[in-house]
Amino acid sequence: MSSPRDRRRFLREAGLGLASATAFHLSASALRAAGANEQIQVGVIGPGGMGMSHLGELVGREDVVVSHVCDVDAQRLAAAAQLVRDRTGRDVQAVSDLRRVLDDPQVDAVWIATPDHWHAPATILACAAGKHVYVEKPCSHNLREGRLMVEAARRHKRIVQVGTQSRSTAHVIEAMRALQEGIIGDVLVAKAWNSQRRGSIGRQQPCAPPAHLDYDLWLGPAPVQPYQPNLLPGVWRWWHAFGAGDIGNDGVHDIDLARWGLGVDGHPHTITALGGKYVFDDDQQWPDTQYVVFEYPATNGFPHPRQLIFEQRIWSPYFQEGHENGNAFYGTKGMMILGKKSGWQVVLERNQPGPSMEGTFSLPDHHQNFLDSVRSGSRPRADIEIGHLTASLCHLGNIATRVNRVVHFDPATEQVIGDDEAAGLLRRTYRDHWATPRDA
């Protein structure tokens, strides 16, 4: 069974603990929209695929006013502005440069649904401008950026929620509670998988960007790379300079649940991985096949080492264990299979069926948790430090895959031990740009 220390940790990560344990000491300006019925003014930065899903939910809320939409693609920007007008009857400021959103003192919070390479720069700038932030997953493009995001949120006393919405999903919260209370004994191994059918992105040559796209602004602080048709939209996530592969795109959701259910609130000390492009003969740079193992040491609160396993096959035509993307938790007294879109089942000793629960994840509930945190000053369920720990697993897994050897990591300093090549991948190279994070 879990110790009292582990139980307290679970409550903190679930966002279910006492407010006194999680509250910020926010200034009066930080809680300007603190009234339960007072409207919060927001801007949506990057209203593309997931960004439009956020926008569609936000314009239906009576306690939110979407005052700004921002995108470097003029066509997407126009579509987002029209959605706000159609759904609310109000006008909206449509801008291409996110600084125009951050400079408006009336904006309380921003939703950041840009490509990954903009997540950290935009979040850090937003915190410095006094805005609370909902940022899409993975929260960072590289491990160092994640730590800078945590520091910015704490330094400026801002609420920063990461878009891993399963953290606010009822059946997932109940599954985590059951695991922490010992339903399958001590959880020693957690597995996350990304098993789905994706397609080739083909091979293309550099060319001029379309007229409706401000490509230089899209690049932001990333190094200049010529535009080509299989880079946008959405395909950027398969490129080293802009995304983190599918481990950071879809895998991060299930890795987050694996880490939560395993009960670890720090980094692993050993990472090993194998993988590469086994199927797709195209321009994408990240693996289509990947197997990563993270090992955590025994601690005072938990006497056993623990493993977190991630496996990915994005050419797979079948569901694994009944779930396209899912989790398995292996304990000393049983096993749990969890699907964030459908529910969970427990198998006890000698294959006896145990408890189960149905459910699906909820984007509105995650929005509600963020807005509640903005009003109260309490940490959100997917606080930036939680998001950083989870995104770091994606980055460390990618590093181990790229160098093709075991990586030893110091959780306290967030540094790779004894491997200069792997250590160099903890950060990125930036061009000279106004959005380049300091100390990156």
Architecture overview:
With 440 residues, this protein is an alpha/beta fold. It has two domains: 17-166 and 365-377, NAD(P)-binding Rossmann-like Domain (Rossmann fold); 168-202 and 216-362 and 391-424, 2-Layer Sandwich (Dihydrodipicolinate Reductase, domain 2). It has 14 helices and 16 strands. The chain has helices at residues 4-14, 19-22, 49-58, 74-88, 99-102, 116-128, 143-155, 170-180, 215-219, 245-249, 251-262, 363-376, 384-403, 420-424; strands at 40-45, 64-70, 93-95, 109-112, 132-135, 160-162, 187-195, 270-276, 289-296, 306-313, 325-331, 334-339, 343-348, 353-358, 407-410, 415-416. The strands form two sheets. It has a ten-stranded mixed beta sheet with strand order 14-13-12-11-7-10-9-8-15-16. A six-stranded parallel beta sheet has the order 3-2-1-4-5-6, with helices on both faces. A hairpin with a 4-residue loop joins strand 15 (407-410) and strand 16 (415-416). Helix 11 (251-262) crosses helix 13 (384-403). The longest helix has 20 residues, at 384-403.
Concise synopsis of the structure shown:
With 440 residues, the chain is an alpha/beta fold.
Q: Beta-strand level of the residues, as a percent range?
A: 15-25%
Q: Helix coverage percent of residues? A: 25-40%
Enter the CATH topology name of the largest domain.
Dihydrodipicolinate Reductase, domain 2
Shape: globular
Question: Mind describing the biggest β-sheet?
Answer: 10 strands, mixed
Number of domains: 2
Q: In what order do the strands lie side by side in the largest sheet?
A: 14-13-12-11-7-10-9-8-15-16
CATH class of the largest domain: Alpha Beta
Quick check: average pLDDT? 92
- The number of strands is 16
Q: Name the CATH superfamily assignment of the largest domain.
A: Dihydrodipicolinate Reductase, domain 2
What is the rounded Rg?
A: 21 Å
Uncertain runs are 1-25
CATH architecture of the largest domain: 2-Layer Sandwich
Element pattern in H and E: HHEHEHEHEHEHEHEHHHEEEEEEEHHEEH
Number of helices: 14
Task: Report how far apart the termini are.
Answer: 41 Å
What is the SS-derived class? alpha/beta
